[in-house]
Amino acid sequence: MTDIDISDIVTGDRVRFHPDTDPRKWWHVIGRDEEHIVAVRQAPFQPRGHIEYTVTGTLDHAYNGQGPGLVRSSLNTLGGGFNLEGRLEEGAQEILHELATGRHELSMRRVIGVTSIEVKGRTLTA
């Protein structure tokens, strides 16, 4: 089980999750609570300002070849995601609220295990 302590990560931090499809690019943390981190970055091959997002969470079992432990994914919504364009802070809080109330959960279809998180200047590992 990958047990990474995310408590030191704060809104405004720049992070890189490992593994990642583009490990050179940094994510910008736009919101968090005790259990989740919401982060965004420029979407590849899209006009400037078009973002993609990811949300961390913990699985207590293996699913789709990932877990148990820290994972990241998008929210499980119709249409494949949550629109944060032009509303990063409000959108991050909305995502955290949806997760806390159980209205949404992380997409298990897109889940990626997290083995370490690099925070600009330091690395968090299990």
Could you characterize what this model shows?
With 126 residues, this protein is mostly beta strands. It has one domain (14-125). Helices cover 11% and strands 33% of the residues. It is built from one helix and eight strands; from the N terminus they run E-E-E-E-E-H-E-E-E. It has one helix spanning 88-101, and strands at residues 14-18, 27-32, 37-42, 51-59, 69-73, 112-113, 116-119, 122-125. The chain has an eight-stranded antiparallel β-sheet with strand order 6-5-4-3-2-1-7-8. A hairpin with a 2-residue loop joins strand 7 (116-119) and strand 8 (122-125). The longest helix has 14 residues, at 88-101. The mean pLDDT is 87.
How many distinct folded domains? Answer: 1
How large is the radius of gyration?
14 Å
Strand residue content: 25-35%
Overall body shape: globular
Q: For the largest beta sheet, what order do the strands appear in spatially?
A: 6-5-4-3-2-1-7-8
> Termini distance?
9 Å
Residues in helices, as a percent range? 10-25%
Q: Main beta sheet, described?
A: 8 strands, antiparallel
Contiguous runs where pLDDT drops below 50 for at least 5 residues = none
- Which structural class is indicated by helix and strand composition? mainly beta
Number of helices: 1
Q: Got a strand count?
A: 8
Succession of helices and strands? EEEEEHEEE
